[in-house]
Amino acid sequence: MLVEVNANSCAKYVKARGRRGGARRDLKDLRAAINHHAREGLHRGLVRVALPAKGRDRWLTRSEAAALLWACRRYREVQTQHRGALKNRKIETDKRPGTRAGAIASASPYREDGRS
To answer: Is there a domain that residue 71 lies in?
Structure first.
């Protein structure tokens, strides 16, 4: 019930959910649904959904970022052969999986809030 949505119940949900980021997303969806419900005229009271703080717990260190980049660079796609003598065998190809070019291009070398 809408009357049960308060800061305390939201905090209990975050704790029960386990992961703060996933809980934040769920609570944002709940807030959007409540606001839509109000716009449709189905309730008149003000219902506030308390969201946990957003943000990362920590940044990658230089060595962690380097290790991640090298792992991505070396990784090759693995495909299963469906015909011929190598049927049902997994073969590493020269193909690299897709990248998120936009995320890489917008990455910042500086540690600041709001920068990726």
So the answer is: yes
Contact (Cβ atoms closer than 8 angstroms) between residue 26 and residue 49: no
Contact between 47 and 34 (Cβ < 8 Å): yes
List, for residues 41-63, the tens digit of each pLDDT value.
Answer: 998 888 999 998 876 677 889 99
Six token digits for residue 53: 């703080």
Of 93, 7, 16, 1, residue with least CA distance to 48 = 7
Query: Within a domain: residue 74?
Result: yes
66 inside domain: yes
Return the pLDDT at 99. Answer: 60
Domain extent at residue 86? 62-96
